[in-house]
Amino acid sequence: MKVKSNLFIGLSVIASVAAPGAYAWGAAGHEIVATIAQMHLYPNVLPVLCSILHQPSQLDAASPGEPAQSCSLSYVATWADKFRYRMRWSGPLHYVGGKGDHPPQQCLFPGPNGWNGRDGINVLGGIRNTTGLLEEWVKAGGPESDPVAEEALKFLIHFVGDLHMPLHLTDRDRGGNSDKVRWDGRITNLHSTWDSLIVAKAIRTTPHNYTKPIPDHEIEKHLRGAIYDPLIRKIVIDGIGGKWQDEVNPWLECPAQEDLEPFSVWQQTKQVIIGKAWMSSDTDDEAVCPYHWAAPIHQMNCEWIWPKEMDEPPYGGSLLSRLGLFGGRPSHPYLELDTPEYGGKIAREWVVEKLFAMAGIRLAAILNHLFAVEEH
To answer: Which residues, in sequence order, are bridge partners of residue 186?
Structure first.
């Protein structure tokens, strides 16, 4: 069964579009985002979500330190990836790339020529349209056993995670899948480095003081005894509740439609001549604004995530220079990224932890916006 909305029309045409080979954040990353989001839901929202997902909600039955809850958004956080090859039409909805975007030399999000691919078929459109489907479900009175709402919710949980993976915001070299690098001596590619290896190191190096359950039942009851639980404690306690406490509200800000920059006369003329150009109002409103949230994350690709060395000899440049022909011995062909300058920066500045926190907080805000029930 395929989700039915204006986003998913023409599926037979879209099915042939190739998607990046690696999944954003891997299983652990998506589950971390979903768990952080669940911790920040309004009390009356989680039971609604559990009902849509056909999961029994018994969170309060778990005592502190016992990961025994029966409902968890983390259970469905990777659903969109697990069945991706069965739903090949959904591939382009996991990422977005501006035409001509080539970090770090050229940073376009999307630039004057719009996005690659079919109009609206990207992660920004995916978030906008799944949100719309769930809004329709709420307006219809929340009918039980609605497969469209169930799949829309699963996609939304996943897409918000994808939005916060920087390499899912550029089409250069298939989001870095085609760029070989080394991480701790292991040959991999830039996308996989961010997708899994950096996350694995963050999990592995989480300080020991986060490994034991804490007295805060409102945190512990959402954990499942997973290997990444210590990292979640670190993010929630000392990130969201500590060093980023003053940033959390700004993370949720969306520009009002009247504040969006209007098209110039030239841009309006260009729309008529070459077709529809990009406007952030295509996806953003005052409550859900994936373009506004994604733009500064994409900028990170241009500033440092895509190392300049990868486009210079001996790692980039001409084939002759990389082979060492006509210029001495060839150097090692793959750039090592697990260094104090690159991997060390990620660890010191809590880069991955902050991206997970932003994704979790924003996902919770969307779900609270959609499903909060006024209590009388």
So the answer is: 183
Q: Pull the structure tokens for residue 184.
A: 């701790």
- 135's enclosing H/E stretch is helix 123-139
Kindly report the pTM of this predicted structure.
0.85
Task: From first to last of the 376 residues of the chain, give the pLDDT tens digit.
Answer: 333 343 332 222 223 233 334 456 789 999 999 999 999 999 999 999 999 999 876 655 445 555 445 799 999 999 999 877 678 888 999 999 999 999 999 999 999 999 999 999 999 999 999 999 999 999 999 888 899 999 999 999 999 999 999 999 999 999 999 999 999 999 999 999 999 999 999 999 999 999 999 999 999 999 999 999 999 999 999 999 999 999 999 999 998 654 544 433 333 333 333 334 455 778 999 999 999 999 999 999 999 999 999 999 888 865 444 444 445 444 558 999 999 999 999 999 999 999 999 999 999 999 999 999 765 4
Q: Which domains does the chain have, with CATH numbers?
A: 6-371 (1.10.575.10)
Single-letter amino acid, residue 80: A
Please, which residues have CB within 8 angstroms of residue 357's CB and are 6 or more apart in sequence?
Answer: 36, 235, 236, 239, 240, 244
Cβ neighbours for 273, distance < 8 A, ≥ 6 positions apart: none
Give the tokens for residue 108. Answer: 């376009």
Which residues, listed in sequence order, are joined to residue 102 by a DSSP beta bridge?
A: 106
Cα 126 to Cα 91, 284, 321: the distances in Å are: 11, 12, 42
Angle (CA) 60 62 65, round 5°: 130
Say how many C-beta atoms besides its own lie within 10 A of residue 128's C-beta. Answer: 21
The SS3 assignment for 114 reads coil
Alpha carbon distances (Å) from 325 to 321, 328, 331, 334: 6, 7, 11, 17
**Structure tokens given for 102:** 């080539």
At residue 237, the 3 state secondary structure works out as helix
- Helices 290-300 and 147-163 cross at an angle (nearest 10°) of 30
User: What's the CA gap between 154 and 115, in Å, rounded?
Assistant: 25
